[in-house]
Amino acid sequence: MITHPSHRGRLNGSKPPSSGAPNRILPTALFPHERSLAVKQIIRPFALAAALTLGLSACSEQASAPAAEEASPLTEGAWTLDPVDSRLSYVSIKAGEIAEANRFDALAGSVAADGTATLDIDLASVNTGIDIRNERMREIFFDVAGNPKATVTAKLDPAAFAALAVGQSITRSLTASVAIKGVEQEIETEVLVTRVSADRVTVVPTAPVIISTDMFELTDELGELRALAQLPSITPAVPVTFTLAFTRS
Predict the structure, then answer these.
(1) DSSP code per residue over 202-236
(2) For the segment 76-114, what is each residue's pLDDT rounded down to a tens digit?
């Protein structure tokens, strides 16, 4: 049987299109210029956000540039010890097992532009935590009337620290000359130098520095202190630690 084309849809179970039904084809398929306009409307906010981000990034880089320029090399100018934030202490051991912390409360020092470093220790500022012991240390052990201070000197290589940036640290071996009561000895140590800010550095030893009484001919004085304190022994070697803070002059 020959089927009329207009009846094929009904034979297949589908309805013929209604002339009154709305056209369901997307408008952008019929009007390409409207699709282009929609794409532009979507892209424009992202482009604006990207431009703002790049602009803010550029401003941030420009604002941070002067801060880097302010951190001039450490070798420019001299440095002065900050006595408030600097510490020098040692641990004494008596009777073979009793350890006591001691310190010096008055320090002064500087580092010249050529690397010459000096540290002065006021021996009268020794602080053992006990008044009578402080008095004996001043009068008998150090004899501060004739020997008011101990002096530490060292020569640093400025080139080793020239490129140190703020927040960075560097470790260096150091030979220091220590003078106490007219006796001078060279002591080898290793220090950690940290640039805390553009005009401030700190220096600490990587390990305690061991000082003994025989190095500075103080064995007799130590024996006199032991007898006065009625102790069986006082260990002749002590570990010394320090934290030295310097500011640019």
Answers:
(1) EEEESSPEEEEGGGGT-HHHHHHHHHHHT-S-B-S
(2) 889 999 999 999 999 999 999 999 999 999 999 999 999
